[in-house]
Inverse folding.
């Protein structure tokens, strides 16, 4: 990506500085907000289409080998089951990116599944060899997660499944059986790849354009979140959509960068320019909303946000229309974009007309509204270049049939080759290896008829943190229980084979559809499917369903006990360091902006990098907060105060981004009041980070810092007439920032009083006197 493109690519949204939630409300609000943000299902048409496509692929891939075996008859070896399993798992993969990357991912998955099945068939006996092979496969699941967090987890589950089934169905080592297992797995995997590829020729995926469209859809959802009526969960919803937009932009840029070739350079640049426009428009709309929420109501008591509401709704519709036009390239959709653009510009002009230019806050709002209008016009220009019919032929060959640059470069761009292993992942992998070996040994010792169900359940239930493990265990046991009861009822009906086959197909489709929407329902259908599939080949009774339920329950219990007692990582001990890193990233972001503001420099690459860093740190804070909520109750003391710290720090980031809009090249900003406030802000964030880590800061230090902060914000100075609007805008922002910083200091004092920044498992030590730290800035 060229430097200019990088500099413009991270105009990330700065949404509103919404009112902080009070502690009594937060206890009820935060769980609901985080639960909604973590909900696996989605009601959007694109998500629905993706789920339907996955379910259809899974059914076709699985039934292909099954029907072929029925047609061949009794001469087909029993290893054909590996073809159906491999085909289904390959077809379930949600591959993204250009076609070379998709094929590379599917090819690697096929090789890994074949190797896992071969190892399972070759290591079934003796028990020591089986346990050693199990430990090896379990360890590779951590490797796949490290290399790619998107494709790693499903690949880990699929490889372990074929390995365990191969071990289960091989009583003793046989070269013939091992070879047949490998070949059938390889053949089934190839069939699964065919099922993935064939639709590309009938309905081209347009992977590059789809990545760009995802950015605009995320922007539309961000606008819709801002437009929601004020409610207790609104702030969390805006934060969720803001993070989703950042993720969509990052994935979009990575997808476009991986597809860049010399021949495609011009086409990729056009798509990147349009993605930058989505980011820039989102940032400016968020900045305008921030200014609106801190503007007092009019004399008639009606807030200006009410006048801005239809603009936000129109912006969301406009962004969705752009996403549609990017993918379809239809003139009718481009015409619809033009119509909605004209309506938006008219709405913005009407909004600006209602502002009083003699009021500093209104003048600031008018300047921000003009920036939004400018971004909309630039968006129309860049959109037309991406839809230029003269370049359509080159675009088609690039996106569908470009094979003149075959290499592993796209795959390498999607993999994480860092030598630094996440400590949480390392602990999780170690825990998984130990527990999987234990479950396998237990299944052998108890001579369970379907012994692989126990370690496999443990694998899919066990998660890196206790809260996620508990939720997954409950979902799997509940789905298996209900599915077992329904399966027992179906078996009691003694249905003919064609009816059983039809029900099995329907259950397979439902499993593929719900596996990411609702895990419990997915498990329900896969339980019925397994029982019915077994009934097609041999007589089964209700004992099979009860056996599966018992195996799932035991696997869930093992996973829960393991997460609770085997090298547990409680989020309360990790949260302070994560929050302190986010505070320091915020400070670095402010320093980059403030330096350029005083020097009259533009929004450049260093600010982009600082912004990306703090956004990643904020995302880590909220992920940690969600894990903290899932920990046992005795480790959630002071949850409201820690959430207040996280929310306040996020609002600071948004306010800093609004400040960045005041960067004007060649126009230095000179203000003694601003310099004093910037120094106090630097000191405050430094003290807060130290207090969160529990290193040096005392409650007295925090209170003294709060008093000095209040005095620095109260400073008033005359503004020059030549730069009156900017001086008033920045004075208004300083007041908002001062309020947010004071609230952060109060929340930190409350957390200190509750001992939130102390390790609850640390042994008690006699108190030691600490020298009182200076409140002055340190290097």
């Amino acid at each position: 990506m060229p430097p200019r493109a990088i500099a413009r690519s991270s105009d990330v949204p700065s949404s509103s500085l919404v009112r902080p939630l009070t502690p009594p409300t937060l206890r009820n609000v935060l769980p609901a907000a985080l639960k909604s943000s973590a909900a696996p299902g989605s009601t959007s048409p694109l998500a629905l289409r993706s789920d339907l496509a996955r379910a259809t692929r899974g059914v076709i891939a699985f039934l292909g080998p099954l029907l072929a075996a029925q047609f061949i008859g009794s001469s087909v070896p029993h290893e054909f089951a590996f073809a159906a399993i491999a085909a289904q798992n390959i077809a379930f993969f949600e591959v993204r990116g250009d076609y070379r990357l998709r094929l590379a991912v599917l090819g690697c998955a096929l090789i890994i599944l074949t190797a896992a099945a071969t190892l399972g068939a070759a290591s079934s006996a003796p028990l020591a060899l089986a346990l050693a092979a199990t430990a090896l496969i379990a360890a590779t699941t951590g490797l796949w997660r490290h290399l790619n967090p998107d494709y790693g987890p499903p690949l880990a589950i699929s490889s372990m499944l074929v390995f365990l089934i191969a071990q289960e169905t091989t009583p003793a080592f046989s070269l013939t059986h091992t070879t047949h297992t490998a070949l059938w797995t390889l053949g089934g995997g190839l069939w699964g790849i065919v099922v993935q590829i064939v639709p590309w020729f009938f309905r081209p995926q347009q992977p590059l354009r789809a990545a760009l469209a995802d950015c605009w859809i995320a922007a539309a959802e961000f606008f819709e979140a801002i437009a929601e009526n004020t409610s207790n969960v609104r702030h969390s919803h805006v934060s969720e959509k803001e993070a989703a937009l950042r993720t969509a932009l990052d994935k979009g840029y990575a997808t476009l960068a991986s597809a860049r070739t010399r021949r495609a350079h011009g086409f990729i640049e056009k798509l990147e320019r349009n993605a930058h426009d989505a980011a820039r428009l989102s940032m400016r709309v968020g900045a305008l909303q921030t200014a609106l929420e801190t503007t007092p109501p009019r004399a008639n008591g009606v807030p200006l946000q009410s006048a801005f509401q239809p603009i936000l709704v129109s912006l969301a519709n406009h962004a969705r229309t752009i996403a549609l036009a990017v993918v379809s390239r239809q003139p009718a959709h481009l015409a619809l974009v033009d119509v909605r653009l004209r309506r938006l510009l008219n709405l913005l002009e009407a909004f600006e007309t209602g502002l009083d230019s003699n009021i500093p806050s209104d003048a600031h709002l008018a300047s921000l509204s003009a920036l939004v209008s400018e971004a909309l016009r630039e968006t129309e220009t860049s959109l037309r270049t991406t839809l230029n019919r003269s370049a359509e032929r080159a675009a088609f060959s690039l996106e569908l049939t470009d094979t003149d640059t075959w290499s592993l470069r796209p795959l390498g761009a999607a993999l994480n080759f860092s030598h630094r292993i996440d400590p949480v992942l390392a602990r999780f992998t170690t825990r998984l290896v130990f527990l999987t070996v234990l479950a396998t040994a237990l299944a052998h010792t108890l001579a369970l008829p379907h012994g692989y169900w126990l370690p496999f359940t443990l694998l899919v239930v066990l998660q890196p943190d206790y809260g996620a493990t508990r939720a997954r265990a409950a979902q799997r046991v509940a789905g298996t229980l209900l599915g077992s009861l329904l399966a027992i009822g179906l078996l009691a009906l003694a249905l003919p084979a064609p009816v059983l086959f039809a029900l099995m197909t329907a259950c397979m489709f439902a499993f593929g559809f719900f596996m990411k929407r609702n895990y419990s329902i997915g498990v329900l259908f896969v339980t019925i499917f397994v029982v019915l599939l077994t009934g097609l080949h041999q007589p089964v009774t209700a004992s099979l369903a009860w056996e599966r339920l018992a195996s799932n329950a035991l696997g869930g219990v093992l996973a829960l006990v393991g997460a609770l007692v085997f090298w547990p990582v409680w989020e309360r001990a990790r949260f302070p360091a994560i929050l302190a890193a986010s505070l320091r990233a915020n400070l670095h972001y402010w320093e980059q902006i403030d330096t350029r503001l005083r020097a009259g420099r533009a929004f450049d690459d260093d600010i982009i990098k600082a912004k990306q860093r703090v956004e990643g740190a904020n995302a880590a804070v909220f992920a940690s907060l969600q894990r903290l909520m899932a920990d046992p109750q005795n480790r959630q003391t002071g949850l409201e105060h820690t959430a207040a710290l996280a929310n306040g720090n996020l609002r600071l980031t948004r306010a800093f981004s609004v400040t960045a809009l005041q960067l004007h090249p060649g126009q230095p900003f000179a203000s003694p009041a601003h310099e004093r406030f910037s120094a106090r802000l630097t000191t405050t964030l430094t003290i807060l980070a130290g207090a969160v880590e529990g290193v040096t800061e005392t409650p007295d230090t925090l209170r003294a810092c709060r008093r000095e902060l209040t005095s620095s914000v109260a400073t008033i100075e005359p503004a020059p007439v030549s730069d009156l609007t900017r001086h008033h805008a920045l004075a208004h922002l300083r007041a908002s920032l001062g309020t947010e910083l004071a609230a952060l200091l109060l929340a930190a004092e409350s957390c200190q009083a509750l001992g939130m920044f102390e390790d609850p498992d640390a042994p008690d030590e006699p108190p030691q006197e600490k020298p009182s730290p200076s409140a002055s800035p340190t290097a």
